[in-house]
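thread from #wetlab-drylab

HS: before we spend reagent money on co-crystallization trials with nicotinamide-adenine-dinucleotide, can we at least see a predicted complex? here's what I'd submit
DV: go for it
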Amino acid sequence: MFYVLFNCKMPAILVTGGAGYVGSHTVMAMLEKSDFEYEIVVVDNLSNAYRAKGEKKPVALLRIEEMTGKTIQFYEVDIRDKQGLSNVFGKHDVQCVIHFAALKAVGESVEKPLEYCQANITGTCTLFEVMRDHSVYNLIYSSSCTVYGEPEKLPLDENHPTGRGISSPYGRTKYFCEEIMKDLCASDPKWKIISLRYFNPVGAHPSGRIGEDPNGIPNNLMPFIAQVAVGRLPELKVFGTDYPTIDGTGVRDYIHVVDLADGHVKALQLFHRNGFSGFCPINLGTGTGYSVYQVISAFEKASNRPIPFVPSPRRAGDLAANWAEPAAASQLLAWNATRSLAQMCGDVWRWQSGNPNGYRE
Ligand SMILES: NC(=O)c1ccc[n+]([C@@H]2O[C@H](COP(=O)([O-])OP(=O)(O)OC[C@H]3O[C@@H](n4cnc5c(N)ncnc54)[C@H](O)[C@@H]3O)[C@@H](O)[C@H]2O)c1
């Protein structure tokens, strides 16, 4: 009301890739907060998000609007389109950018390294240029535990070396972007960049109305299991059953996407902290690892269905185990993951069984 009366723009948070999996849950988490004072502006090229015919906005954002009663500004723009991005910055009073937009399929990145460089590195640099041109210096970046490469010791903390032994072009794009962001921060103290290094996001919003909707055959374990449970895929291949882990299968730190989204909301507050500037990497994980067999068993309990699986040889480049040291997030953001593996599986099952074809009718 204030902004209308005085004919000024409302402060905005620009979310690139906000129609995707983690982006949509973060938009939801921001809008669910009753005292949230920003307008949400989403930029997405819809390469991995679905908009129904005749609609202006992707289904995920329409559902969030319906659940929260709040409006999301949406622009179908590619982050490599400098003019298109600049127009969006010109229309809104952007205070901060949360940058999710990227290609993320590890296997595909091996076949299409140039496409991954273009989208994830060139696109990110274009975004930074536009931010600088509009004097916007606050950024939350979607990074990944893949920047740590082959773990030298577990748990992984933020001081673990990055860039060594990264097994995919996708992982390297995340590492290169972090290096670029460090250079940016060294060049100008106005930049405040929080690089959130996600472990393995899974789960869905407890409403069952938004969730992960991968194009084609899922690359990640949990959506794959969910599609087996719902009958879209016949069985799961378990790659590697002879790792030096609790039961021979790979161990990962799975984090509920709603916890992950809350981590972004908490990170926004860091920009207001006195003296905060520069590049700040923060792990978002639970600190606990679960094996593939443990995840299958938890999903069978949550869905009350058997998950047929076939033990298969290891895949090149896969790690035996990784999990996070989440103490920095706890200290800097006052954030801890609270949701259990059972909740992750239960929420995925609610989403997948209620939306067997994802956002498509
Ligand atoms: N999901 C994971 O397992 C995981 C783990 C670690 C890090 N991350 C990072 O988190 C971010 C979000 O991942 P996600 O799982 O939500 O992926 P997602 O594919 O669901 O979401 C990404 C969104 O970005 C959009 N997009 C892609 N390229 C774009 C471009 N050039 N211009 C504009 N929009 C574009 C897509 O349409 C999609 O809506 C990515 O940067 C990813 O690398 C994800």
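DV: The two ends are 37 Å apart (CA to CA).
HS: ok that's useful, forwarding to the group
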